[in-house]
Amino acid sequence: MVVANNKVVSVTYELRKNSADGEVIEIVKDDNPLVYIAGMGSLLPDFEANLMGKKLNESFTFSIPADDAYGPREESAIIDLPLQVFMVDGEVDYELVRTGQTIPMRDQDGNRLNGIVLDVNETTVKMDFNHPLAGDDLYFTGKIVGIRDATQEELEHGHVHGHGGHSHDEED
Ligand SMILES: [Zn+2]
User: Fold this and answer.
1) Count of Cβ atoms closer than 10 Å to residue 72 Cβ
2) Which residues of the chain have pLDDT under 70?
C-alpha cells in the first residue's frame, strides 16, 4: 500500500525554516504523528504532493518555498487597531494584550485568525496578522509511519477517526 487519495496516512517529521539545518519549528514524533486523509486538501498542497506514492516506513526530505507554503509576509497584514477593540466591560486585559502575545480574533466576515501583538500604546494596538511562517521556506524531513484505507464514514466526514484523529461520542 502506498500513499494515495483516500488513504489515512500517519507521518512523523521535523520542520525547519529557511534551510535544511535552519531553526527547528516543529517536531512531530511517533507517539503523536500527524494523521490525515490523503487528497482531502487539509494540508499544504505541496506537502501532500511530496508524500503521494510513498511506502510505509519510507523516509522523505523536501522543501516548500514560502510562496507555495504560507505566502510572503505582507505589510498590509500589520494593522493598528483601536484599543477599544480589546475592551471588555471598559477594561483592557493587559495580560492578554501585550507585546508578543497571540490573540485569536475574527475578521469582518467572521473568519477566525490569529494576530500577534507587536506594540501597545494608550490608544492603539499594533497587530501582525501574517501567518507565523509567512515568508519562510519550509524544510521537512520525516517518515511515513502508517497507511490504511479510510473508512466510508471518515470519507463522508472528511476527517480521521480514532487514534490521532477526531473522536465522536458514539465511538470508543
Ligand atoms: Zn467524524
Assistant:
1) 12
2) 163-164, 169-172
Distance 110 CA to ligand 1 centre (A): 24
Average pLDDT over the chain, rounded to an integer = 93
pLDDT at 110: 86
Helix (DSSP H) and strand (DSSP E) numbers for the chain: 2, 11
State the pLDDT at residue 171: 46
What distance in angstroms lies between residue 60's CA and the mean position of ligand 1's atoms? 29
Whole-number Å distance, alpha carbon 165 to ligand 1 midpoint, is 9
Query: Which residues, in sequence order, are CB contacts of 20 under 8 Å at separation 6+?
Result: 61, 63, 139, 141
Domain co-membership, 37 together with 52:
yes
Please report, for the domain that includes residue 20, its CATH number. Answer: 3.10.50.40
How many Å lie between the centroid of ligand 1 and the Cα of residue 169? 10
Residue that terminates a domain, selected from 91, 108, 128: 128
pLDDT of residue 164: 65
